[in-house]
Structures are given as C-alpha cells and as structure tokens.
Amino acid sequence: MGARAELELLLKASRLDVTLTSAAPWTHEARAVAPIGIAPLDAALAGGLPRGHLSEIVGPRSAGRTTVLAAALSAAAARGEAVALIDTADRFDPASAETAGLDLSKLLWIRDTGDPVRALKGLNLVLHAGGFGVVAFDLADVPAPEVRRFPHTTWLRIARVIEGSQTTAVLLGAERIARSPGGVTIALEAPRLCWSGTGDRARLLRAVDLRPRVVGGRV
C-alpha cells in the first residue's frame, strides 16, 4: 500500500478525510440533549441540557431553581425516562412536584439530612448504576463553604462517569459549582414580581418573571 493510500485510510478512521482529502463540508453530529420543557430555555440551550455532561442550575433563593429542575425531571419522566434526585437538605416536596406534572413512579428520591459527603456517595452510586435520563444533586441549601470543601476533582470524576452516556447530571446550588466542558450553566437572577392594581393596598401578585442566563449553551 502506498504512503498516500495509507494516510487516507488513517484520516478516514479519524473522520478527518472530509477536511483534508476532499471538498465536502464538515458536518457535526447532532448532540444529544434532554429538553427541559420550557420553550425559551430549550431554545437558548440549543434543544435542552446536553446528555453525557455535567450541568448546573444556580441562583439565589426564590429565583426559580426548583421550578426549572422540576420541569426538567417532569419532561424526562414524560418521555419514559427514569430520573433521580439526591436531596441533600430534604427540600423536595413530592405533592407539589406531582401537581406540576412529575410522574413520581419514574423518580428515585434519595433523601438526606444535611450531610453533603454522604449525599455525594449516593450520587456516585446512582450515576454508576446508569439507566437514568436526568440525575440531579441538590446542594441549594448547603452552606457555600461546605460546597467549596469538595475537591475540584470531585466534579471531574462525576463528569467522567457519565461521559458518552445518555444521562444528564445537574447540580443545583446558590452559586456556581462546576460543569463539564460540554455542560451548561443556567444562572438565575432574583425574580421580578409583576403586580396588578393601582394602590399599595389594592395590589395583587399577578406573575413572577424568572430571568435565566445560559452560559455555554451553544456549540
């Protein structure tokens, strides 16, 4: 075999032949995503949360973190996927989640009493078991200094476990924690309250305007 033919075979095996040996345009494979079910967010995310990656939903209290997460879990369960929630501070309300559309029969709920290290072990067990569409690790009510005690390699290992899989791992927190290079950050700001009525005593809360910002959502 000539040197040129051998080189072309190697390029084809590495999928570089379209850029170096022909004029055919390079095309990216469509990345697998898990739609959240909130249209503006899914649009900003180019379809949804990336599968096989670690992402995060962060923001202050009452910014809508739990609402976004519940939507992602509900959407995955509606597609027939199993979902899991590692609930470090026992914040999850099953009745409210079911009212919002989550099929609880698809949910593995691991409750804890505020021990982040033990909760992390539960997360690792779930991710290694596989078979889940969305796995969430709720650290929202864990004090920031405790979250920062986790070595950075913790999140690298989690990202490695799900790399190439159909699982989307999501961290929920008050501030940015970590995400894999292919993951996204949904940063929520304090919500804007929308009122109806004219006087202070006659006003009624009409809506809560959530304001998310997506970091790393397009590739």
Summed up:
The chain is built from 8 helices and 9 strands. It has 219 residues and is α/β, with parallel strands linked by helices.
Describe the fold and architecture.
The protein has 219 residues and is α/β, with parallel strands linked by helices. 32% of the residues lie in helices and 26% in strands. The protein contains eight helices and nine strands. It has helices at 3-13, 17-20, 39-44, 65-78, 94-99, 116-129, 144-148, 152-162, and strands at 33-34, 49-50, 54-58, 82-87, 107-111, 132-138, 168-173, 185-196, 204-215. The chain has a seven-stranded mixed β-sheet with strand order 5-4-6-7-3-8-9, with helices on both faces. The radius of gyration is 21 Å and the shape is globular.
H/E topology pattern:
HHEHEEHEHEHEHHEEE
User: What is the number of E strands?
Assistant: 9
- Strand content of the residues, in percent? 25-35%
Shape label = globular
Task: Look at the helices and sheets and give the structural class.
Answer: alpha/beta
For the record, give the distance between the C-alpha atoms at the N and C termini, rounded to a whole number: 39 Å
Q: How are strands sequenced across the largest beta sheet?
A: 5-4-6-7-3-8-9
What are the low-pLDDT stretches, counting only 5+ consecutive residues below 50?
14-29
Biggest beta sheet attributes: 7 strands, mixed
Q: Indicate the mean pLDDT.
A: 83
In DSSP terms, counting alpha (H) and pi (I) runs of 4 or more, how many helices? 8
What is Rg?
21 Å
Task: Kindly state the percentage of residues in helix.
Answer: 25-40%
